């Protein structure tokens, strides 16, 4: 299969571009430190909030085409007009279940001797996490315990209830209870960690949890 890449669900292969290379390195942690006189070790801020924070993801995509200079100008101008400087969802054909979000910078070049046009597409401000294309949605009716599985990225789900409902859960040994009336709610304390998260639901209606998972 010919490798492809999608910008906002638009196939570059279908637009006449061949994907020559993709450089999608992992995001780097924020390794800010403070050296304090008299101390033998610095103050490290990487996990200041109890977890590792990451710098923006950077990536580069190189696309090419064969043809006349006029044809290249037409196609590259279309790409620049569509995507240059815009915040775009980017998906690789070999990893179709996740997408990156970042601002694209496009630099065209043309080799007249080879009759080959190149688009170098870079991004320096992408979100650190890659997001799942499909949101995770789970529902429970009445009184029950529900297990919400989550990928690596911590996420707060949206909770929709059709009747008054009480939720109970634990995070790192701390127990929480929240009673909700019918409606849609976001509870900041209800942050799903990587793996399985168990929530006890007490109520007569339907309770729906909706969230988008992510990973590095």
UniProtKB/TrEMBL annotation:
Name by which UniProt lists this protein: Phage tail protein
Organism listed in the record: Butyricicoccus porcorum
């Amino acid at each position: 299969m010919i490798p492809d890449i999608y910008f906002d669900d638009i196939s570059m292969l279908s637009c006449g571009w061949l994907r020559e290379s993709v450089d999608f390195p992992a995001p780097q942690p924020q390794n800010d430190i403070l050296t304090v006189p008299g101390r033998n070790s610095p103050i490290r801020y990487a996990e200041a909030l109890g977890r590792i924070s990451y710098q923006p993801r950077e990536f580069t995509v190189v696309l090419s085409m064969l043809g006349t200079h006029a044809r290249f100008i037409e196609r590259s101008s279309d790409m620049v007009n569509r995507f240059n400087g815009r915040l775009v969802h980017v998906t690789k054909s070999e990893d179709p279940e996740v997408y990156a979000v970042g601002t694209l910078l496009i630099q065209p070049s043309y080799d007249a001797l080879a009759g080959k046009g190149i688009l170098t597409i870079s991004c320096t401000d992408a979100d650190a996490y890659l997001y799942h294309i499909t949101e995770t949605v789970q529902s429970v009716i009445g009184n029950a315990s529900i297990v919400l599985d989550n990928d690596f990225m911590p996420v707060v789900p949206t909770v929709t209830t059709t009747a008054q409902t009480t939720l109970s859960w634990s995070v790192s040994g701390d127990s929480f209870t929240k009673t909700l009336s019918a409606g849609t709610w976001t509870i900041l304390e209800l942050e799903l960690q990587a793996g399985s998260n168990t929530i006890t639901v007490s109520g007569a209606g339907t309770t729906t949890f909706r969230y988008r998972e992510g990973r590095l």
